[in-house]
Amino acid sequence: MKFGYFDDPNKEYVITTPKTPLPWINYLGSSNFFSLISNTCGGYSFYKDAKLLRLTRYRYNNVPTDEGGRYYYIKDGDTVWNPGWQPVKTELDSYECRHGMGYSRYTSEKNGLEASLLAFVPVDENCEVNQLTFTNKSDKAKEFSVFSYIEFCLWNAMDDMTNFQRNLNIGEVEVVGSTIYHKTEYRERRNHFAVFSVNAPIDGFDTSRDEFLGAYRGVNDPQVVAEGKSHNSIASGWSPIASQQINVTLQPGESKSFIYVLGYCENLEDEKFVAPNVINKKPADELLAKFQTNEQVEASLAALKANWEDLLSKFTVHSDEEKLDRMVNIWNQYQCMVTFNMSRSASYYESGIGRGMGFRDSCQDLLGFVHLIPERARQRIIDIASTQFEDGSAYHQYQPLTKKGNADIGSGFNDDPLWLIAGTSAYIRETGDTSILEEMVPFDNDESKAVTLMEHLKRSFDYIVNHKGPHNLPLIGRADWNDCLNLNCFSEHPGESFQTFGPSEGPVAESVFIGGMFVMYGKEYADLCAYTGDQAEADRAMKEVAAMNDAVLDGGWDGDWFVRAYDAQSNPIGSKSCEEGQIYIEPQGFCVLAGIGVETGEAKKALDSVKEKLDTKYGIVLLQPPYTRYHVELGEISSYPPGYKENAGIFCHNNPWISCAETVIGRGNRAFEIYKKTCPAYIEDISEIHCTEPYVYSQMIAGKDAHFFGQAKNSWLTGTAAWTFVNVSQYILGVVPTLNGLSINPCIPSEMGTKFTMTRKYREGVYNITVENLNKVEKGVTKLIVDGKELTNTTVVPYEKGKAEYNVTVVMG
Ligand code: BGC
Ligand code: NOJ
């Protein structure tokens, strides 16, 4: 069943009922100011950091679900309704929500009155704009009132929902004209305040939540709205809100718009006040002046759309596969931007107060983002590398506001160092900018310990070389990519964090997965060394890579698939000899991706085993058989009920690894089959089973051992976004940035037809690519024609400095 449809020309998903199985959300903002917004107008806003600078409140896992957002109550006679249906939930005569690139638009109608709400965060502005347009569609004049409502968060979202003995005393506001200023803690150590304003005279306001809602009432039935008259309340402590009342009269056919702005403003320390405890409102005045007229709003929306048109023009495909095209050209890249911005901090499943930026997560997010805005990727790489330690290990997370490593979680996740090589290599292959390798970058944010980024990569590489176990495989530490395989943890008491309990280093527990990663990214490290003239280091690196390749094939091969790891007693995990968890997805994907066993047949065997043992109709599960009891020697993985999360859920992040791996051995049909199984656009028709948004990936779909097989959770913030984009663009469509130029070597399914075209902006050039496949092969390039000239024995279009356009024909056969 579907709850909407894709509108590709407008790059929108159109939701046609507010009653989606779960809230279906969108993200507004792309640099500093962000909002989450659901299909019923729920969600919240923050500036830079969802934990430390939260503007509006949101109650996670609330009942009823998703209550709290930017709400407009329309009181038309005895009927009260909202354009987004929530929170009053009056049945609407019509409803539509369009989630687009950085904006959402809601159009609803009730009793002949249409309300259209446009919400977006303008490019490079610290505010959310809500343009609310009313149209009288009836044949009689209409008189009604509109009451706006947002609830302020007292900035630190963690404190806001826990430290009530303090924070119920500190709320403060100012009201001037149609503008409400939220200034909690401004009198002391904050130099920022929030503002909520409307561009029209108002008929009343409220800033006290309890006055507005009334005792024991909820946002679904505010007292003030029921009475039809604001109380003009001034909040003092308790819970500050912003609400404005506007009485509107509309003749038949007449329209009127109101522009509401929620903004974040800062003042210099010595310019905070114009009188004792009275805010200097200059920055707010300047911000609000930009959004006073419909023309200003339209121009700002047009700029936002143009920005996205430009970003999404960097990679496009036009093929017979409509759903593939829409994911590649629109939604997958959009999600890559969101994961780059948010890491794993704020979604409807991540509370914004838990994790900051993840070291491995952000490095992987880069892989799907770097072609969009390489300059931002560059800065991110430097920020991430600055949280590395001198021995090559790294803080597992850092806070976006301070950019400092998070000491609570510390280090010891032994895959982290290699992801830095992955991210940096992707950036250099995309841009050719090797100057980044010469940047001086600190260790642990200590500038006195700065070395070149290249030296950081060397430390990353050597961390693995210097931390090997009895099988000459990398030590796993606290965990590798699979945060739940905690082999040195041995946690026996509830509340101990699986990720930080126990020693971070164990003498023997090893990871075959990191072995695969080392072979893959060790080669990329060697390439970078050779490319920048250090052939001796490249040779040394390739020797280590060859040794690891052998170690994986010796100690890491189980006969029909790759072993997953060795535990603290050196017993294999993910082996036929195990009672449960005999085969895991991760090493099959990554070892083959790295090229291990491709020549000697292990790669094909491993992928065949994946198909036989792990595949399901909704995607490939992480392991089989699932753990049915808690294994203290394995940790969190066995804490999940069978079929959920890492315990045999369909982890969407590593399904693309298998798809990529299939292309490495040339099986385009199988690669595409895997791609389609978890791809949102391809499973839109089963939204009632899948439940999460049909335009973005979720982290996990419940596996075949779970009660709700096929149901997804944790949408939006997942490495799946970047990896599916890498898979589809680089491995299936085959467009790979290399150090020397763009390589085009597709591995495709029969349904791609005999011809498709792509455009790729790469460095200074635009590549217009036509792929011809008259013989319908799955892989293989017989001819590469660049601007009419045939190149032999290569898939790489050599990079020519400054050249603006390349016309490329790739003939498969
Ligand atoms: C989840 C993992 C996640 C980890 C982060 C675990 O509870 O299952 O998916 O990586 O938390 O700390
Ligand atoms: C989610 C985490 O954000 C990511 O870092 C981890 O690799 C996966 N879960 C798997 O555990």
Automatic annotation (TrEMBL):
Transferase among keywords: yes
InterPro entries the record matches: 6-hairpin_glycosidase_sf (IPR008928), 6hp_glycosidase-like_sf (IPR012341), Gal_mutarotase_sf_dom (IPR011013), GH65_N (IPR037018), GH94_catalytic (IPR033432), GH94_Enzymes (IPR052047), GH94N_CBP (IPR037825), Glyco_hydrolase_94_b-supersand (IPR010383)
SUPFAM superfamilies found in the cross-reference section: Galactose mutarotase-like (SSF74650), Six-hairpin glycosidases (SSF48208)
Keyword entries, A-Z: Glycosyltransferase, Transferase
Domain Glycosyl hydrolase 94 catalytic: 308-734
Origin superkingdom: Bacteria
Every Glycosyl hydrolase 94 supersandwich domain range: 11-291
MF terms in GO: transferase activity
PANTHER family assigned: CELLOBIONIC ACID PHOSPHORYLASE (PTHR37469:SF2), CELLOBIONIC ACID PHOSPHORYLASE-RELATED (PTHR37469)
Protein name as it appears in the record: Glycosyl transferase
Protein species of origin: Jutongia hominis
